[in-house]
Amino acid sequence: MHPYLIRRVGRTLVVLWGISTLVFVVMRLSGDPAVLLLPQEASREDVQRLRHELGLDAPFLVQYGRFLGHAMTGNFGESLRHKEPAMQLVRAHLRATLELACAAFVIATVVAVPLGILAALRPNSLADHVVMSVALLGQSAPTFWIGIMLILLFGLGLRWFPIGGRGTLSHLVLPAVTLGAFAMASIARLTRSAMLDVIRLDYITTARAKGVSEWGVIGRHALKNAAIPVVTIMGLQFGTLLGGAVVTETVFAWPGIGRLAIQGIYNRDYPVVQASVFVAAAFFVVINFLVDVLYTCLDPRIRYE
Amino acid sequence: MSKRVAPLVVLSWLILLALLVAAVLSPQVAPHNPVRERLIDRLLPPVWTPDGAWRYLLGTDHLGRDVVSRIIYGSRVSLVVGCAAVVVGGALGIVLGVMAGYVGGRCDDVIMALADMQLAFPTILLAITIIAVLGPSFTNLVLIIGLSGWVTYARIARSQVLSLRETEFVEASRAQGGGPLRIAWRHILPTISAPLIVVATLDLARTIILESTLSFLGLGIQSPTPSWGGMLSDGREYLLTAWWIATFPGLALMLTALSFNRLGDWVRDLSDPCLRRMELR
């Protein structure tokens, strides 16, 4: 394996360890779950017994060691509320989140990349100004407000789409557009500026001089080099989509891990929070890693750094 | 390049000026007390609708509170939390970034590894988790929102310092016996301030949106203090009957964020067109 990749894998593992540690520490700061779990009239002995059962009476470092050992096998303990393994709950909700994130990602890419190219081909034209203004709007509007406005307009007003829950394809439309709006704006802006950078270069002029068709120049020559920053931001955006899904899932009552995590927080169900935050972050890290690998394929220069 | 300032930039300045006036002079500008409830006036629509009344320009919410006044007072929360968070994140990021760039070596490795780790963590999830645990106070809100943004400052500061470290004026100061702190403060910081101002302007849009998002989820500024995110959360329950409660605070939020984003881009183009790369963040 290439040394660059080995270094990169090492860094990914360190980040995963850091995330799990952070999650552990933060959740332990939140007070004693044993007290919260039991009814108020529970005796001190009951609390002690539960603390022992949950392993909460062990020294902090021992708890941490146990946690890490279990985390490596994907075992985050049992949900305090649902009485089933936290990881199982997360897995059951993961599909919905991935479905939503992928749909949002596809919508964002399919809309943003052509628009970005269009804007770059005619800089300062009307089309450019319109695309960039819409992108600026998309970057500035808060996700939850976009969601609420879409519900108001297309859900309650026009009654085109259902306003919450998961099921048919039409359930997916509004949440996916909501979640994808920010990514769409970022990708469009970056595609435009990356294309503008590339299109000025000599090799493009050469290609044109050789008589390559305009489609060939854009599609075969320019896009390949412009793709490098665009792929990076798309990778980062996909990770952000998974995290940002928290808000979208709350607005649309979408049964994904974001909503699971929020409910876990309200219920102080810390195994569930740990598991869902860890899984979301792990996805994020792994996607970034894959983007870096993809990078080395797109741009061979990086391998020699 | 033409000297003409784009109309959107002028508009952004005007919006931010209005916001500043609204925040500073809330008691003078707001027509009503933002927390006084008048159930007899509840859910009144905006003035231009058939049932609207001049007393309440943008209508009232479910407790009969004036939406305009709440938006005006809400601007205080947005601006104060947003600015304070930018100061916190900016200060930490700049210090760490300058250290990483100037000291280099192990120090650089550790700081950049921390930055990677932070970037690997979905910010909003982190913020929600920590606020839920520590409780939604003003200080916690500012700290969390601020600390979640330090990486961009650190990266920009570091890369700028790296290119400045070996320049002649820094070397001259070093030859004259200037210590690292003096060089960083007197020579490096003023030189790298332009891109950092750009980052801070764009970051303001981020902090304000993040604050409203947390308030929307019930983890930010608590009722009855008016905040735009909180108003949106209230309005969500009344979408079918009173669309205006959720619509206008969101509009205010979007216009504010839009203005900061547009001005950030504008300052960046003014100071250095090459900085367009920063969109990568």
Kindly summarize this structure in a few lines.
With 305 residues, chain A is an all-alpha fold. Chain A has helices at residues 3-28, 33-37, 44-54, 60-72, 86-121, 126-140, 143-157, 169-199, 202-210, 214-252, 257-267, 270-298. In chain B, helix 1 packs across helix 11.
- Specify the number of helices of chain A: 12
The Cα radius of gyration of chain B reads: 22 Å
Number-wise, the strands of chain B total 0
* Average predicted local confidence, pLDDT of chain A: 82
Class by SSE composition of chain A: mainly alpha
What is the CA-based Rg of chain A, rounded? 24 Å
H/E element string of chain A?
A: HHHHHHHHHHHH
Could you walk me through the main structural features you see in this protein, from its secondary elements to its overall organization?
The complex is a heterodimer of chains A (305) and B (281). Chain A is mainly α and 305 residues long. Chain A is 79% helix and 0% strand. In chain A, helix 7 packs across helix 8. The radius of gyration of chain A is 24 Å and the shape is flat. The mean pLDDT of chain A is 82. In chain B, helix 7 runs antiparallel to helix 9 and helix 8 packs across helix 9. The relative contact order of chain B is 0.14. Chain B is elongated, with a radius of gyration of 22 Å. The longest helix of chain B is centred in the first third of the chain and has 37 residues. The chains are: A mainly alpha (305), B mainly alpha (281). At the A-B interface, helix 1, helix 6, helix 7, helix 8 and helix 10 of A face helix 4, helix 5, helix 9, helix 10 and helix 11 of B.
